[in-house]
Amino acid sequence: MCHPNPQNESRDKNMASYADFYRQSMDQPEAFWTEQAKLIDWHKPFTRVCNYDKPPFAHWYEGGQTNLCHNAVDRHLKDRADQAALIYVSSETGVEKTYSFKELHVEVQRMAASLLAMGVVKGDRVLIYMPMIAEAAFAMLACARLGAIHCVVFGGFASGSLASRIDDATPKVIISADAGSRGGKVVAYKPLLDEAIKLSTHKPDAVLLVDRQLAPMHLVAGRDLLWSTLRAKYMAAQVHCVWLDSTDISYTIYTSGTTGKPKGVQRDTGGYAVALAASMKHIFDGRAGETYFSTSDIGWVVGHSYIVYGPLIAGMATIMYEGLPTQGMDGQPNGAIWWSLVEKYKVTAMFSAPTAVRVLRKQDPALLKKNDLSSLRALFLAGEPLDEPTGRWISEGLNVPIIDNYWQTESGWPIITIANGVEKKASKFGSPGVPMYGYRVKILHESTGEELTQPNEKGVVVIDGPTPPGFMQTIWKDDARFVNTYWKSVPGKMVYSTFDWGIRDEDGYFFILGRTDDVINVAGHRLGTREIEESISGHAGVAEVAVVGVADALKGQVAMAFVVPKESAVLDDAAASLKLEGDIMKRVDGDLGAVARPSRVRFVSALPKTRSGKLLRRAIQAVCEGRDAGDLTTMDDPAALQQIRDRVAAK
Ligand code: ATP
Ligand code: MG
């Protein structure tokens, strides 16, 4: 190997401040990223740091060869073979098991040998449709080991969504399980998978199944194989890592589908490994030998970067948790389960989402105080705007710094946050922070493309190329869609659009105001839905809120609010709803002015969300405007959208 593992070097010895660190990444990107590349092992050194000859395609570390699985597993065998690597905890089944790096290495080789036996070679696609079980991580790492491209599809997606992903990825093999479980309810995956394969045009050669004994499974002869059989056959298998070019594809993953049809994001190998290693050190301040806990799912990018690859590359133990945030290992309600895991495994960095915190916020706040959380240095939250009341509630309840992260499936790692490992700067509530090293983030005027440099000017958040290591390479099999979707939306400029709307304040902190298509234009005033939601969520009677713009003959658009009240009694009490509606309107008047006041506030028991927990504003908006709600394949609970329909119809 060319470089030693520098995890234990004194940290950031030459860095006076984050501002200097960031400036170096902008002014001397080659030197900066050459330095970061030392955080991983290279089989062959790279010859060119970044090839940006054909914008917007950035090729990182050309000429170099490496392997994600080697960096996540094998390279730690020398120093930490017996140390915990994967800590699997399921409050659905009561299973709790720790795999050391050595044990993980063995399991991954068994899985890799099984894949080899099924004919999988470098460049083949393997679709992983699995619940949160340790075998899912083995499967991802085994693919990385062989240079096979994994395509993880969130477990429990309906057959139609799965079928379209099978046709897009054209996998040689699909890895799945008999069932997942959610809140104690078994969701049989195998029938969904069988139906999806029936619906898809492409057919896999083989299906590998983990039998958790949660649901009966019918095996298709000649196609379906059991992991238990192959695992036993390859008990002592030794499968070496296939060295990949840095620019070889590691995986594809779909975006959440909040704004429409999901996009198949394609990621490289070397750039991604470096980006993750660097982010573990500079952003998450995670150190080898410690424990990291991300509550996400492997079906999302956070699960790829910060359940599986990032922590392991950093030599940390990673907790993989199956279950709700509110249930104990005995299956009984327990709103402190996560905090008890933090205490038990001495978690130093934790990563979750505002949507999960809002679930916890409905519980007794005393649950945040039950456990010893002294190991925890910070809680990172990402995926959606973190409203101030939610941020304050969790921060005060846990007495731990809360760090909001803004990023996307496309970026693979945070774009805007606080680099906690470089300089422990204070966060500002409502702001994820400042641009991360490597990201030249700008705010542009939506229609003129002019750069907005004055504080608090609203515009589209864009990234000037080249995008940093770890960022998406392209859309899988569709370079033209990649260029046209992301790089051509601002007139006259080739910049990457995040399609999010934001401002930068006097101190350089960014505030994300919502998606560009969520901007409401009321009688010529442009308002982000986020601003109105932020104001409404500050009302003590509000648990959750969604604001959408609805076409209005007179004003162009008006804001419409849907609120989940803290007290569910409000839902059935006309007088109480009317009072709360009036109070909320007054609050918005006071915070933002009458122009932002929603024309109606309607109360519901739940809001429609994607499976990843994001508000489906476009679906709410379509319902309010009497249009078809569009692609709803990623929606979690159809009943929530039906409730909105009923409320709107009731006037
Ligand atoms: P699709 O692109 O398919 O419509 P999606 O954008 O929801 O789905 P993701 O990549 O999972 O898919 O989500 C990224 C988006 O989530 C960002 O563009 C932004 O709108 C929102 N987001 C993520 N983190 C934050 C945050 N910390 N603050 C505000 N918004 C955030
Ligand atoms: Mg998106």
Automatic annotation (TrEMBL):
Residues 18-72 form the Acetyl-coenzyme A synthetase N-terminal domain. The keyword Coiled coil does not apply. It comes from Polaromonas aquatica. It comes from the Bacteria. Residues 74-467 form the AMP-dependent synthetase/ligase domain. Belongs to the ATP-dependent AMP-binding enzyme family. Keywords: Ligase. The keyword Ligase applies. Its EC number is 6.2.1.17. Residues 531-614 form the AMP-binding enzyme C-terminal domain. One of its GO terms (molecular function) is propionate-CoA ligase activity. This is Propionate--CoA ligase. It is an enzyme of class 6 (ligase).
